[in-house]
Amino acid sequence: MSTITHHPITLFLIIFINLLLGITGCAHTGKSTSPPGKEDLTFQNQEKTEQSSPEKQENETAAEKMSDDKLFLLDDEEETVPTTIKDPLHGWNRAMFTFNDRFYFLVAQPLTKGYAKIVHADVRAVINNFFLNISMPIRFVNSLLQLKFKSAGTELLRFGINSTLGVVGFLDVAKIDYGLESSDEDFGQTLGKYQLGHGAYFMLPFLGPSSIRDSVGLLGDLFLYPIGYIKPQELSLGIYTYESMNGFSFNLNDYDILKGAAVDPYTAVRDAYYQNRKAKVDE
To answer: 211: which strand partners?
Structure first.
């Protein structure tokens, strides 16, 4: 049985995403212009009395035309450089952002804070190492697909060392004793490396900000993740949820800081997601 069947929520999301592929939208931006300042009346009267020669008028007209042409080219250049992700599904994304925000503060954060108080940070770090070790196939395959052969080799070495000397991955011996750092590669980044754009921004329930490209990438990564093959599916989802909570326990205040500093938290989260994913693809 494939990984998809072990993740009913993910399957639902992927089906929904496919329906959204037919939706097109366009971003609308407006420009405001500041009102002109008052001109000096004395200078204005003086200017009226001056007569310009035909050559001077012709030169001024040509200069103004060149200035307008340069501004036109600059505007065109600025519009072709994307500064954020397209958001044609704004209505859905806003609603889902509100849902995730309330879920975070009412459920996820209180539970994780309680978990962090009960379980010592050292124990949580060991558990995090274990999940990092068994997710090696995701990083290894995507490193190969991106032609990052050194990273792929490092992932194999890390897995071999940590699965043996590191007691099936609970200890990160490869990093501590051999200086072998884990890479951070996924299928969404791989698609980006091959010049596939994000498509529309898409806020996933519970999982947070994503895009059409990265949602498809998530599906590809699930095929490579051993946890997805555990039966029954409820146990598989339970383990995945626990893994997410354990990892989240080390970053409890990140969202609070971002939201507190933002005028519009929705836009701040969207733009932070875009910049983060762009940086990973550009690495």
So the answer is: 201
Domain assignments of the chain as residue spans, ordered by start: 3-19+85-282
With beta carbons less than 8 A apart as the criterion, state whether 142 and 189 touch.
Answer: yes
**Averaged pLDDT in 10-residue chunks for the chain of 283 residues:** 40 43 36 40 43 48 47 42 84 97 96 97 98 98 97 98 97 97 96 95 96 96 94 94 96 92 95 95 91
Residue-wise pLDDT tens digits, 11-63: 444 444 444 443 333 333 333 333 444 444 444 444 444 444 444 454 444 44
Largest CA distance in the chain: 92
**Sign for the pseudo-dihedral over CA of 190, 193, 195, 197:** positive
CA dist list (Å): 31 to 74, 75, 88, 90, 173: 15, 11, 19, 20, 56
pTM reported for the whole predicted model? 0.71
Alpha carbon of 98 to those of 10, 257, 268, 273: distances in Å?
20, 17, 14, 17
Both tokens of 124, joined, read: 């949580």
Residue 159: partners with Cβ closer than 8 Å, 6 or more residues away: 133, 136, 140, 169
Q: Backbone dihedral region of 67: left (phi > 0), alpha (psi from -120 to 50 degrees) or beta?
A: alpha
